[in-house]
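Batch manifest, entry 17 of 40.
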Amino acid sequence: MARLLVIANRLQFSISKREGEFHFRPSPGGLATGLSSLPDSYERLWIGWPGIASERLTDKDKDQIREKLVTENCVPIFLSQRQLELYYSGFCNKTIWPLFHYFPTRAAYERRFWQAYNKVNQFFCDEILKVAANDDYIWVHDYQLMLLPKLIRQNLTEAKIGFFLHIPFPSFELFRLLPWRQEIMEGLLGADLIGFHTYDYARHFLSSVCRIAGIEHTLGKLNIDNRVVQVDTFPMGIDYQKYSAAVNGADVKKETEKVRKQTGDRKVILSIDRLDYTKGIIQRLEAFDLFLSENPEYKGKVTLIMVAVPSRTGVKDYQLLRERLEHLVGRINGEHGAIGYMPVWYLYRFMPFTKLVALYNVADVALVTPLRDGMNLIAKEFIATKKDGKGVLILSEMTGAASEMAEALIVNANNKKQIVQAIKQALEMPIEEQMERNRLMQERLSRYTVSRWSHDFISALIKIKEQQQKLSARKLSKSSREQLIKDYQKSQNRLFLLDYDGTLVSFKDRPEKACPDKETLNSVKCLSSDKSNEIVLISGRDKQTLEQWFGSFNVGLVAEHGGWFRRKGRDWQRIETFKSQWKQTIRPVLELYADRTPGAFVEEKDFSLVWHYRRASPELANVRVQEMRDTLLNLTANLDVGVFEGNKIIEVKNLGINKGRAAELWLSQQNWDFLLAIGDDYTDEETFAVLPQKAYSIRVGFSMSKARFNVDSVDEVKSLLRELAGD
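Output type: structure tokens
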């Protein structure tokens, strides 16, 4: 049976100790619900902190808790009060939380917080390794454990690891403010699948990977150390049926009647949130104040029920926020209230499920206006309870939910005037319009529930692992390498077709200055000294550069991807004569785009023009590539040239020039009993395509290819050539 390990900061149970007795209470939230809906073919094990500091527990207490939780498929990780203060209250909630929610001035970059975060993530890893195995599915959750995927990967290299972020991922301009951005990024990239609530968050993450690590994605896929990592969106849903059915429950009906007796025939606007500065509570209260001032006819006819759930009560910023909120509530009630009428009903408490659903049921309008929110399930819960279709949702465009709930009244949470207009529109909206808007949202929410969310994530994790396995099956294994060497040793006529950039030298070097190192030169020299070997270097470099590096060697050379070739001991020749007048038309276009793209430059070769953008801003370069490709395709439509995309280049060259055509010059020379071709990019696919089936063809890096095998890196190519050379 497959086993799913769920790793989160908190367990699905919170433990408290009162009068020597332990009390176990299910933690609120939809995650447990979603995971419980997975098929029984998954054995689930939840690992996390149980909600009580280790100083309050004896060894006997910990054993007792473990015994109790093992029956619930939970493994507790005990954290000290000091760890909680520095790791959770410190780095998580004073650094990551404000920064990722676009409050950079509130973020504290203290090294002691970072060190604690490192240690707790490592502690989680140590505890996980005691129970985890390589064939487990490991699902890590949220911003408290962003280093964990890499830590697990270093110990369980074949593990199936997913990570989901439940809060926003910020734009690169904010993420780059974090002193430890590199470590956080590397930690996340240890996962096989990285999930976000919305496309915007995924886009921000991919942009940061590109800007920080220099790794670009293809349809959300990243090649990390020759392991494919998928980045995708999974908008978290709710247990729709639970909220929809609860409205008819006897307890909910009883609570609903209590509230209705208090509100009478007044319209009810509902606001429910944790007391947090990211939720925009002050702004929405000020907007309600403005609404009553501009629409005095609604005084006595509308009530705002504001529920503020206590949060981080020991943090001074949150204490000040509460004081400000309560002062504002008092002022509004004093200014707009009257005997028998209180405009704002303020409740500072946790709201049990029954009372929560009753409030949803009573409310005519839900005012959900966070300044920034990962998803916001309150908006979805409110719509799910509206079985009669009546009710209006006012929703901030800064929530993840806004992308799914376009039928709500979408507002800018900082625009009080817009919120005032939305409140009036909501209170005056015809019933038919309310029902139609809610029907569309309900149909959508009832389909994509929290159960569907968890199923989709696990299915995507399985799929990406299958893709990894398909690629790894093509890897040049130890046995395949041994067979290659045996075939080499027993053969008499051997042909080597070797690419240069990305194959014999790494792209970590600046490609325009990547001279061959001594190891590469020694291997080529040693192999070419064997009379049974014909070594051919097939490169995109110009012939002058290749001549300078390898002209004194007993090797064949191919320059400009096949435009020029030189057999051993002979002069350079063209494959055929090509016209180059087209350059006069194309070069000004490439230069214009280079001028508009700092870091880009144009290289002219005999048969091609190359636009390099390795040193340019990735985002800007991607825009320019799109623009330039369309322009070039139009310009070259009637010319005998083609436009090709390579690794950080756009190349315009004469059609008919390719590495495969050059390789055929040597392939037809004699009947080779050993053939080895190695390359790393799309131009080398032309070589692989013309090889006979018996040939050994190897692509550097893991991607789909016509080559028979893949290897991890340039270092592995060097090692193979060294062994063949007998060095």
